[in-house]
Amino acid sequence: MCATCGCGGEEGGKHEHHPHAWQHRHGTEGGRVIDLEADLLEANAVFARRNREIFRRRGVLAVNMISSPGSGKTTLLVRTLEALRDRIPMAVIEGDQQSELDAERIRATGVPALQIQTGKSCHLDAHAVAHALEELPLPDRGILWIENVGNLICPALFDLGEGKRAVILSVTEGEDKPRKYPEAFHGADLLLLSKADLLPYVDFSVKECTEFAHRLRPGLDSLLLSAKTGEGMEEWLRWVEEGWVRAKTSYQPEEPTVD
Amino acid sequence: MHELSLCRTLVGILETQAVRHHYRSVRRVELRVGPQAMVEPGAMMFSFGVASRGTLAEGAVLEIRPVSARVVCLDCSHEGEAEKLAEACPVCGSYRLLWEEDAGLRLGEIEVD
Do A40 and B9 touch (CB under 8 A)? Predict the structure, then answer.
């Protein structure tokens, strides 16, 4: 049993399918009615609050990166780690349904990475991150990158306790993504339009995309970036560093324990 | 399909509350879904069937009820309710609305035996 939450340690989608499961039962006269008014996300919120408090005390900027698969998240992350690793302590949590591939790419930069394999689950939740924090050495006064499972829908609903949430959208995906997947943008702190070097070859209106994203999140910062050519990288790194400088001021050194 | 993990949570709450409210089975469950909660009703119904199987909620009817969220307009300070994301302020037409933080996904009324 795990120490964080008392679970059996089998989170992450172990379940059986019963596809023909249920039948509606009609006519419910005579039953007792209770108004529970219970928040379905409360269990996640408890872990998110706990993670956030850990990040605050350790002066860590945690960045939750959300995008669909293939937006170039990992490439961007590798470039970012290479640019900042000499000055800022960092660590990475990689969320994927299967494989260690992304964590291996990250480790090649020399930055510690932990891969969470979510199995059948389509998103990271605060509980999974809490477990990862038991294993991954958290970089005091540094940055924890959390690369969420490639999915623009499900991760949006789950607060991980992060300080900043960046949504990455590659220009090859089309400018209508904010219309189609509003929640991801509604909860974002930064919209990163990636693969900017491909703009001449695709019909993608940066203006239309960011305008609609602003309807979902007034004042949302947005950046146009290419990890390949380096365009926009400077601006992106500035955004990251601003968040980092602010986050590390809350660092509280642990009191030495007295016997 | 985050709906499945949500439904597992939902069934977990129903089981916990059964002790407190002394019921043995659930006939009907009302789920209140706000505009900020990304859940797909069809996927939710399906997942509820899967997650409730063999529990006291097996066979219960899941009613999905859309609810609105509280918003404040950052330009004219109008306070009101919004039914979906990216709506304009009904008073001044601005899209700069500040939303309540709650994601708006709640288990509402249940009917039990």
Answer: yes
The ipTM, to two decimals, is 0.84
Q: Which residues of chain B does A33 touch, with a Cβ-Cβ cutoff of 8 Å?
A: 109-112
- Which neighbouring-strand residues pair with B20? none
CATH fold of the domain at A44-247? Rossmann fold (3.40.50)
Q: A206-253 pLDDT, tens per residue?
A: 999 999 999 999 999 999 999 999 999 999 999 999 999 999 999 998
Taking the CA of residue B19 and the nearest CA in chain A, the distance in Å comes to 13
Instruction: Say which residues have a Cβ less than 8 Å from residue A210's Cβ, sequence separation at least 6.
Output: A191, A193, A220, A222
Domain coordinates of chain A in residue numbers? 44-247
Quick one: tokens of A140? 């005091």
pLDDT in 10s for each residue of chain B, 113 residues: 688 989 999 999 999 999 999 999 999 999 999 988 878 888 999 999 999 999 999 999 999 999 999 999 999 999 999 998 999 999 999 999 999 878 789 999 999 99
* Long-range Cβ contacts of A114-121 (<8 Å, 24+ apart): A116/A12, A117/A12, A118/A12, A118/A13, A118/A149, A119/A12, A119/A13, A119/A14, A120/A12, A120/A13, A120/A14, A120/A15, A120/B1, A121/A12, A121/A13, A121/A97, A121/A149, A121/B2, A121/B5
Chain A CA closest to residue B28: A28
pTM: 0.85
Which of B26, B38, B56, B102 has the highest number of chain A CBs within 10 A, making it the mutation to test binding with A? B38
Class of domain B2-112: alpha beta
